[in-house]
Write a structure and sequence with these properties.
Chain A is mainly beta. Chain A has two helices and 38 strands. Chain B is built from nine helices and seven strands, in the order ααααααββααβββββα. Chain B has a five-stranded antiparallel β-sheet with strand order 6-5-4-3-7, with no helix packed on it. The chains are: A mainly beta, B alpha+beta.
Chain lengths: ~525, ~270
Amino acid sequence: MNKLRGVCLLAFIFVSCAVGACGQVTFERLLNSSQEPQNWLTYSGDYAGNRFSALDGVNTANVHSLTAKWVYQTAATGKFETTPLVVDGILYATAQDDRAFALDARTGRPIWLYQHQLPSDIRPCCGRVNRGLAILGDKVFLGTLDAHVIALDAKTGNVIWDVAAADYKEGYSFTLAPLAVKNLVILGVSGGEYGIRGFIDAYDADTGQRKWRFYTVPGPGEPGHETWEGDSWKIGGAPAWNTGVYDSKTNQLFWPTGNPSPSNRGEGRAGDNLYSNSLLALDADTGKLNWYFQFTKHDEHDWDATQVPIMIDSGDKHLIAQANRNGFFYLLDRTTGKLLSTNAYARTTWTDSKDSEGRPAPNQQSSPTPEGRTVCPGALGATNWMAPSFDARTNLFYVTAREQCDIFSTAPQPYEVGHAYYGSAYFPSDKAEPYWGALRAIDPASGQVKWEFRHISPTWSGVLSTAGGLLFTGDAEGNFIALDAASGKPLWHFQMGGAVYASPMAFALDGKEYVAIAAGSSLYAFGLP
Amino acid sequence: MILLWLLVAPSTLADEIRNPFSGDPKAAKAGEFEFRINCAFCHGLGARGGGRGPDLTRAHKHHGDSDADLFQNISQGIPGTVMPANGTNGQGVGMTDDEIWQIITYLRSIQVQAPAKSVGNAAHGKELFYGDANCSSCHMVEGNGGRLGPDLSAVGTARTVESLVESVRIPSKRLAWGLTESTKEFAQEYQTVTVVTPDGHEIKGVTLNEDQFSLQMMDTAEHIHLFEKDKLLSIQKSRDSLMPVYNSTILSDQDLDDIVAYLLSVGAK
C-alpha cells in the first residue's frame, strides 16, 4: 500500500512538473543546468558564461520558418536590457524602472508584476535599466537602481526581504542580474560615474543578511592600496556592474570590474588603480581574493572590463576568455590568472607595444587632453555589456563589436558626493567614418577573428549560440537575426520595431524550442509554426 | 471668479517655476561640468553649438527662452527633434532637478544677448534661395521647395552659422551623422545611394532609411522606392552628398551671407 502510494506520488510529481512549475530551483539544478536545456536558469544560461543553448529544435534547416509566438509589452520607456529566466514553463524577467514580472512562457500572459518604488533622485548613470533576475529555491532576486537587493516570491512577486546595500545618494546602484551560488546571492555595484568605492556583495538567500563584501578598491593596509594616489581610493570607482561566472570545481567566482573614477581623467589618481578594469578570482564562500588580472591599468577612457568572461576547458587546460571593451581579446589560465594570449578583435589606436606580462600597453598619443584627442575604440568601447557567447562545437567565441572612434577631452573636476564625476567630455570624431558594428567569431586559441557579420550601425545586442548550429543577435534597427554559427551567413530575420539593448536566450515547452529577446519596450518569443 | 483664475493661472504657474540657483557662480560652475558630460556631445564645448545641436549661447532659443522652458526641454526632451529626455539616450548621466537647474544657470552665465550675427540681407537671401542659387529645388522652407534634401525651416536655430556655411561650401563633410534611430535622425539619412534593380534599371537618390535587409530611398525625381536588398542587383552607397559644392565662384561670400541671413530669419520665427 505504502509502495503504491509512493508510486502515485512520484507520478503526480512527474505530471505536475511536466505541465507546471516544479518550484524549488536548487543549487544542484543551477550546477547541472546543461541537463535541463528547456530551462534558462542563470543570466548567461550556465555558470560558465557560455550563453549557449543545447536545444536544436530550431536549426539551420528550419530556421527560415521561425515566427513570432507572442509579444509582451512592458509599457516602459528607455533601454530594455533584460535576459529572461525560464523555469518549468514560467518566464521571469525585469524591465526598465526596476519592475520584475513572471509570464506564462507559452502565451506571454502575465502571472505577476512587481514594481519597485524608486526615489525621484536616484543616480542611474546610463538609463533606468536592469539586466535580469537570479533564481534560487522559491525566490527570484532583483538588484535596484536605489542600491537595494530584493528577494521576491517566485509564485506571487511578493517581497520576501529587501535590504539596502549602500546609499544611492552617493551614486551607488545595481543594474546587473545577480548570480545565485550555493545559498548566496551575489551582485556587483554600479556607480563608476559617481566616484563610488566599488564592491561585490554576497547575501544569504533566505534572510538577506550580507555574508561578505569585497571592496574592489583596497583600503589602507590592504595589498593594492599603494596603486592609488593620496585619498583617491575613497572615490576610486571600480564598480562591478555585470554578472560574473562561477567555477564549482574550485569554488571560485570570476567577476569583472569597471573603470576607475573619474573615468576620463587620470590626474589625481596616479598608479595602476587596482582593482579597476580587472578580472577577480574570489572564493565564493568568503569573497577572499585569490588572484586578479588587470586588463587596462590606470584607465582614462572609461574602458570598463565588465564584459561577461567565459570559462573554457580545453583538454587539461582550464581557461577563461574575455573580449574586452578596450578592443582586445584576452585568454587567461583561470587557475593562476596568468595571461596566455591577447589579440585585437576591433580597431585600436591606443597601444603599439606590450608590457612584460604580454599586456597591451598604452602609447603616448592615447591620453585625453583638454583640446581632445581621437582614440579608437571610442568612449562606448569595442564592445560593452552585451553578452558574448561560446559554442564548444564550433570552438568559436562570438562577440558584438562596435567600430567607433571618439575625441576624448579632459578637464579638472572637483568631486561632490552624488554628482557625476567624469572629468571629461567626448565627441564623435568628424574625421572617422560613420560608426558601424559587427558580430565577430574569434578562435580562442589563436585570438584570430575567423569571420564577421557586419551590422550597418553599432548594436547593443548580445549573442546566443545554439545546438541547432545557429547564432541569434539583434541590431539597432530592430532586426532579430539568425546566423549560421559556422560561417556567419544570415539565415532569417524579423523586424521587431525597436532597437535591441539585450541579449537573447532560449527555452523549450512541450518539446518545442523558443528563442526570446527584448526590443523596444517589448519582449518577443519566437518559435516554429 | 473661475474665469479670473483661468486668466491669471498660466502666468502664475510659469512664475512659480524659477531657477533656485539663478545668478549663483558656484552653481554655474557645477553646471558647466554637467554640461560637458551631458550636453557637449551635440551642443559642443562652451555650448556654442555643433553639427547636431544649436548654439545655446544665443538668448533666443527656438523652443522657449524662459527658465521653465529650458527646464522642460532638458528634462523631457523636445518631441520631433533629436533632443532627448534627461537620462534616456545613454549620453551622459541622468540628472537630478538641481543639476538641471545648474546647467541652466551655466547657460545663463554664458548667454550672449545679441542675436546670432548675420551681416547678410535676408530679403536678397530669400530671392537667391528660390531663384539663382537654386536651393529650393532640393530644400523646403515653410512648405515651399523640393524634397530631396533636408527641410531648412528650423535650421537657422538648430545649427550654428559656421555649420550652415560649411554645409554649403563642403556639403559632404558632415553628411547626416545622426545619433540613433530612436531619436528620429537616422544614421543613414541623406546618404547618396545608387541601386540597380532586377531588370537592370539604375536609380540614384538619397537614403530615407535603411537597415540590414531593406532600403527606403528617394530618387532625384522625388519618387520613393522601397527595396528588399537581396532582390537588388547592386547597391552603392556614398558619403559624397548629392548636393553640389557651392564654392565662392558659384556663390559669392556675400550671397551666402544673404542666404544664411534668410535661414536665420525664418528660424527665428
